[in-house]
Amino acid sequence: MKIKPGNVFDVFVKQMFGRVLVFADFLKHYADPKFVAEIDLKKITPAPTHYIGKDGDERIVDLVFQCPLKNGTGNLMAVIVFEHQGGSLKKVPQKLHKYISAIWDAETKENKKILSAPYFIVLRTAKKPHRGAYPKMSDLLPKGHDGKPLGKVVEIEYDVVDLPAWDFGRLVGGPVLRLALGILKKMIEGNGDDFPEALLPIREISDGAQQIELTKELLDFVAKAMRNHNRRLEAMAVNRALKPIFQDEEHAMIKTIFEEREDIGEARGVAIGEARGKAIGKAEAILTILRARFRRIPKETEKAVRRITDPVALDSWAVQAATCQSIDEFTNAIK
Q1: What is the C-alpha to C-alpha distance for residues 248 and 201, in angstroms, rounded to an integer?
Q2: Rounded CA gap, 115 and 12, in Å?
Q3: What confidence category does residue 33 fall into, taking pLDDT thresholds of 50, 70 and 90?
Q4: How far is 243 from 245, CA to CA, in rounded Å?
Q5: What's the CA gap between 185 and 13, in Å, rounded?
Q6: pTM to 2 decimals?
Q7: Nearest alpha carbon to residue 89 among 9, 160, 14, 4
Q8: What order of strands is seen across the sheet that includes strand 63-68?
Q9: Which letter does DSSP use for residue 159 in this model?
């Protein structure tokens, strides 16, 4: 069973940009100024869980936030649509129609007189910038003799933040936002060895506990992303990354960050043991969900679930277990 490379990046984006302050910072610096000028950035909140499709079928899988308008007449529903590595934006228009339909259906059932205004921004991390016009729904429709699409369709406009198109030094925003964007950019542009430069904004954070927590999150992501490409994050690379940040205290910081007793090797061993224990628990939870929904599980499927140890993949499989329509659909999804 192969783990999709995008899974690690998806989880990282949701982990970092799911913080309201980071999301607001992202909108402020990368979204259309016309929209940003209309919303109250201080009152942004994550969208309620009822903006999820029917019967537990999760239709909104990217980041969705309610942004109250300054004039008090309603909300702008801002959505980050994350597109990793595949590069193509062809599926984006259909995805946006599903998202706004789910949102408006929920609001209509709540008898809201004014529906939320949609604003979609695609965070794209393919290795090369997108060229040409952004895809539209009409691109998928049959064409008449004049070459124009037949039928009528509502087009949903969207903006794209294309990380490969940005020079590293031009990334803007607060330190946490630049950390997230910088790490993403470094990990998709090269082999990951030059990631230390992306950690430098940590120096701007005065809270020591937050420094350590963010460093741990970022290094965990780098390690997982490199592991997906059969590479390891070595102790020397960690030392090199932390030296300019903690200024000769990097050894103490490494011990704090990884909760070491003796050295990095011991900490890695403890982490691996804990990870295996958590993986077993997640695998059993997935199997419990499948048994409750479909009663019988094919032996090969059960073996596949027990065999996987990557926590990111297990989280993804848990969503599949809860939302798939059949055991065959689940089995095909994890291949």
Answers
A1: 17
A2: 31
A3: very high
A4: 5
A5: 12
A6: 0.70
A7: 160
A8: 45-46, 63-68, 75-83, 117-124, 159-162
A9: E
